[in-house]
C-alpha cells in the first residue's frame, strides 16, 4: 500500500471517530483541533489527520481559522439545513430513478429493507441505521446522476452518526421499514407524484428524529 492510499484510509477512520465525538458533543463547539496532538493521540503521521480534518470541514463540522482548525458542532439549525438539502436531492433522485432503474437497483433497495427488518427484530440500532441509508444509497445510484450521488455522499456520514444516536422504539423501527417498503412500491410502479410525496413524508419523520437526537445529546452534555 503506498503512502497516499494509506493516509486516505487512516484519514477516513480518524474522520469517522472525530465525527462521532463531535456529533455526540464529546468534542465541544470551539474546541481547537491541533494536528500534532491528534497525530499523537491516533498514533499516525500528520497526513491522515489533515485528510480527516479536510473531510470534516467539507461536512461543516469543523472550520479553519487563523489560529487553526476548530470544532463547529451540530445545532438544530444545522439539522434543518441538512434536511432541507436532503429533501431537495432525494426528490430529484427519486424522479430520475423511476425513469432508468434496472432490476438490480430494485433488488438493492429490497435487500436494504430486508436488512432493516432483521436489524429491527434483533434490536440492533446501528445496523438498522446502516441498512436505512443503504436503501437511500441505492436510490441515488439508480438515479444515474453522478454529481447528485456525490453530493449525497458528502453528508451521508453525518446522517449515519445522527441515526446511530436516534432513540428509535421497536414501533418506530417497524414504521421506518414500512415507509421504505411503500416508497419502493411506488418507485417500481412509476408513480412520480406519489413517490415524491412519500419521500417528503418520510423525511419529515427523519427530521423530527434527528432534531430529537441532537437536542438530547446537547442536553446530556450540559447536564
- The helix tally amounts to 9
Write down the overall geometry.
globular
By CATH's scheme, which homologous superfamily of the largest domain applies? Answer: GntR ligand-binding domain-like
Give the helix level as a range of percent: over 70%
Radius of gyration: 19 Å
Kindly list the characteristics that best describe this protein.
223 residues, mainly alpha, Arc Repressor Mutant, subunit A, Four Helix Bundle (Hemerythrin (Met), subunit A), 3-stranded antiparallel β-sheet, 9 helices, 3 strands, globular, disordered N terminus
Describe how the helices and strands are arranged.
Blueprint: H1 3-23, E1 32-33, H2 35-42, H3 46-58, E2 62-65, E3 68-71, H4 76-100, H5 103-122, H6 125-143, H7 146-165, H8 170-189, H9 192-222
Antiparallel strand pairs: 1-3, 2-3
Amino acid at each position: 500500500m503506498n503512502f497516499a492510499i494509506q493516509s486516505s484510509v487512516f484519514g477516513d477512520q480518524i474522520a469517522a471517530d472525530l465525527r462521532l465525538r463531535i456529533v455526540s458533543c464529546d468534542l465541544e463547539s470551539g474546541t481547537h483541533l491541533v494536528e500534532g496532538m491528534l497525530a499523537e493521540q491516533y498514533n499516525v503521521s500528520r497526513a491522515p489527520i489533515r485528510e480527516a480534518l479536510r473531510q470534516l470541514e467539507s461536512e461543516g463540522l469543523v472550520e479553519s481559522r487563523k489560529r487553526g482548525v476548530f470544532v463547529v458542532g451540530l445545532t438544530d439549525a444545522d439539522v434543518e439545513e441538512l434536511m432541507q438539502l436532503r429533501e431537495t436531492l432525494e426528490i430529484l433522485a427519486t424522479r430520475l430513478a423511476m425513469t432508468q432503474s434496472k432490476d438490480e437497483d430494485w433488488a438493492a433497495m429490497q435487500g436494504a429493507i430486508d436488512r432493516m427488518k432483521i436489524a429491527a427484530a434483533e434490536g440492533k440500532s446501528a445496523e438498522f441505521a446502516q441498512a436505512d441509508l443503504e436503501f437511500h444509497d441505492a436510490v441515488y445510484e439508480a438515479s444515474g446522476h453522478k454529481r447528485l450521488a456525490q453530493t449525497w455522499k458528502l453528508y451521508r456520514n453525518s446522517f449515519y452518526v445522527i441515526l446511530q444516536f436516534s432513540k428509535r422504539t421497536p414501533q418506530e423501527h417497524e414504521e421506518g421499514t414500512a415507509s421504505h417498503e411503500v416508497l419502493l412500491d411506488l418507485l417500481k410502479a412509476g408513480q412520480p407524484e406519489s413517490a415524491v410525496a412519500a419521500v417528503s413524508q418520510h423525511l419529515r419523520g427523519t427530521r423530527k428524529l434527528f432534531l430529537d437526537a441532537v437536542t438530547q445529546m446537547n442536553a446530556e452534555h450540559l447536564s
